[in-house]
Amino acid sequence: EAEDWSYGDLKSAILGTAHGFLELGLKPGQKLILRLGNTVDFPIAYLAAIAVGIYPIPVSSQLTMSELQKLCTDLSPSAVCIDPDFGFPESDTMIQILLSDLRKMRSLAPVKFELGPPDRLAYLVLTSGTSGTPKIVMHAHRTIWARRMMFRDWYDLRQDDRVFHAGAFNWTYTLGTGLLDPWSFGATALVLAGEASLDKIPALLAKHEASIFAASPGVYRKLLRSPDFPETPRLRHGLSAGEKLSESLRELWLEKTSTKIYEAFGMSECSTFVSSSPKSEARVSTIGRPQNGRRVAILPLSGSDKPVNFGETGIIAVDLKDPGLMLGYVGSASSKDNNFSRKWFITGDLGQMASDGSITY
User: Which residues are 316's β-sheet partners?
Assistant: First the structure.
């Protein structure tokens, strides 16, 4: 059964939950793990913590007990919000907030926002670990400002849009594109509940009149195997990130839905910063162009800060002044450990830039 939330109800629930965190003795600067499912409880707890200066740490429901234990050892969190379906290691030092108690906090009197400079720490997130051991990324409050560059140059977002994301909230792609961005713009976010399987998505897209659909290429691939794909007249286009999108997948989606997919490139360490959009479609074999307001370069493998020539292969890099760039990794004190040079954040991904700004990776 679908739940409908207004902006007013969400704000009240968020600031009431923030009140509950403070009543339990949590203080600004402490860390809070979120071990919750893909329900509205997740963003309410996440934003409640940020509202009063507590640092939320979204974690996957797929993490094992040993992985969670190591995370706690590394971070020394003060509390954890737990859905009993997932469980959590026993601890004498952490406050354990069960889902049932978390929901009761919504009705408490709202507290005031903890205000401060935009560069201060807001939340922590784990990288996907695709390039090795997952790292813990520290992001500032200013990150949400940087995401506005995507509204036109990737989403083509409108206030009457209904954005449906197929991923889990512990993934930055889902949390940002599927929830925070539509909300901060005044659009509607459609949240896929944890118990809903991928094969139900086509019907849900039609039933809830989604106008933008976001997913990874792997999800698109599975959906396109569905023999019964209903008409989706409100759907304007799809968004893809997380891995490279093949041309064949684009063509199949267009054939099935009569809509296009627009791809973007980003990572946990930085907001998505290269993309295509309905207003600026990517040339074949490219991912798109840097969004307006970004400063992106292709640097030589030698380690120089001077960009290579157009068409030459190098490492994709983002200006250190980008507002969406992380503050650094937990436990990494040096610039080198944080992939920072004098001017750039080095992504580690190889790419080429054409003279029109189009990037291939």
Answer: 298
Selection from 273, 278, 339 nearest residue 303 by Cα: 339
Comparing C-alpha atoms, which of 137, 237, 171 is closest to residue 245?
A: 237
3-state secondary structure string across 156-220: CCCCCCEEEECCCCCCHHHHHHHHHHHHHHCCEEEECCCCCCHHHHHHHHHHCCCCEEEECHHHH
Matching residue, tokens 């099935």: 256
What's phi and psi for 60, nearest 5 deg? -70, 145
Single pTM value for the model: 0.94
| 64 Cβ contact partners less than 8 Å away, ≥ 6 residues apart | none
3-state helix, strand, coil in the chain (%, to 5): 30, 25, 45
Alpha carbons 73 and 75: distance in angstroms, whole number: 6
Q: Helices (DSSP H) in the chain: which residue ranges?
A: 7-23, 41-51, 65-75, 99-104, 143-146, 148-150, 172-175, 181-185, 201-207, 217-223, 247-257
Reference 136, options 356, 353, 345, 331; nearest CA is 331
DSSP-assigned letters across all residues of 61-73:
TT--HHHHHHHHH
pLDDT digits (tens), the chain, 361 positions: 678 999 999 999 999 999 999 999 999 999 999 999 888 999 999 999 999 999 999 998 888 899 999 999 999 999 999 998 888 988 888 999 999 999 999 999 999 999 999 999 999 999 875 555 789 999 999 999 999 999 999 999 999 999 999 988 888 899 999 999 999 999 999 988 765 678 889 999 999 999 999 999 999 999 988 887 889 999 999 999 999 999 999 999 999 999 999 999 999 999 899 999 999 999 988 999 999 999 999 999 998 999 999 999 999 999 999 999 999 999 887 778 899 999 999 999 999 999 999 999 8
- Paired tokens of 323: 């507002």
Cα dihedral 326, 327, 331, 333 sign: positive
**Partners of 340 in the β-ladder:** 345
CA 67 – CA 177 distance, rounded (Å) = 27
